[in-house]
């Protein structure tokens, strides 16, 4: 009887980077949750498909308080994938795992795995990113250092996140998130206005809240205090 030894391939470990939304609640929690509910009313699909991390560094909550906060977020369909800043005694069975060592990248992040980005050129000496090709559905482009300019279109299901302004010389059909690092002076401009979601400095607006009279036109978007303004450019 002849025995044959099967050679199995070795286990492979691959690195993969994900970007996540980090929620950093502040006291009083009731007021913070009320603000979160207001955001959800403006953008009900904002957390859909996004990885969310809870940073409780500013709270130093007890185990019971942390469990209550996680439960409150779960009730709002915001599942927490990990917790930063919790004491060793605050976590346990049934709680998300502890996380640490994350690299800050603004207040808003891309959902899911980052696909390969379109061909891009960074302007020398300037805080801007130019994309020479369209941004396809499923792609996310994140540039916290400054402005993003897209020479083509941004497809439905695609996402642009910029620390500064966003300029789209084609159709804007996906998500455009400007001023992600805290820049209320950022603007969003496009040649053909058909967005799924707009955001500037944390203020969001979804497609249902956008003036239908502006669709298909060249449009600019900016903040006026706590209000988001839109106006045709033609």
From TrEMBL:
UniProt subunit comment: Interacts with MinD and FtsZ.
Start and end residues of each Septum formation inhibitor MinC C-terminal domain: 131-229
GO biological process: cell morphogenesis; division septum assembly; regulation of cell division; regulation of cell septum assembly
Pfam families from the UniProt entry: MinC_C (PF03775), MinC_N (PF05209)
Primary gene name: minC
Keyword Cell cycle: yes
Region (Disordered): 89-119
Domain of life: Bacteria
Organism: Methylobacterium variabile
SUPFAM superfamilies named in the record: Cell-division inhibitor MinC, C-terminal domain
Domain Septum formation inhibitor MinC N-terminal: 11-77
UniProt xrefs under InterPro entries: CAP/MinC_C (IPR016098), MinC (IPR013033), MinC_C_sf (IPR036145), MinC_N (IPR007874), Septum_form_inhib_MinC_C (IPR005526)
Cell cycle among keywords: yes
The entry's keywords: Cell cycle, Cell division, Septation
Function: Cell division inhibitor that blocks the formation of polar Z ring septums. Rapidly oscillates between the poles of the cell to destabilize FtsZ filaments that have formed before they mature into polar Z rings. Prevents FtsZ polymerization.
Protein's UniProt name: Probable septum site-determining protein MinC
Family to which the UniProt record says this protein belongs: Belongs to the MinC family.
């Amino acid at each position: 009887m002849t025995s044959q030894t099967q050679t199995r391939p070795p286990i492979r470990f691959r690195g993969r980077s994900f970007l996540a939304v980090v929620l950093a609640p502040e006291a009083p929690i009731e007021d913070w949750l009320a603000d979160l509910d207001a955001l959800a009313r403006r953008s009900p699909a904002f957390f859909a498909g996004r990885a969310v991390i809870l940073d409780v560094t500013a709270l130093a909550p007890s185990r019971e308080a942390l469990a209550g906060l996680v439960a409150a977020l779960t009730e709002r369909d915001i599942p927490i994938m990990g917790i930063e800043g919790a004491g060793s005694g605050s976590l346990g069975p049934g709680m998300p795992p502890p996380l640490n060592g994350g690299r800050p990248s603004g207040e808003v992040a891309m959902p899911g795995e980052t696909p390969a980005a379109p061909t891009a050129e960074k302007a020398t000496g300037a805080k801007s990113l130019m994309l020479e090709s369209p941004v396809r559905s499923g792609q996310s482009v994140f540039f916290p250092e400054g402005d993003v300019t897209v020479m083509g279109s941004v497809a439905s299901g695609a996402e642009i996140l910029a620390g500064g302004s966003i300029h789209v010389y084609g159709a804007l059909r996906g998500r455009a998130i400007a001023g992600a690092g805290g820049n209320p002076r950022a603007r969003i401009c496009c040649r053909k206005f058909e967005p799924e979601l707009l955001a500037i400095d944390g203020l969001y607006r979804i497609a249902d809240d956008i003036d239908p009279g502006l669709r298909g036109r060249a449009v600019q978007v900016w903040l006026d205090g706590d209000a988001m303004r839109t106006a045709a450019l033609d």
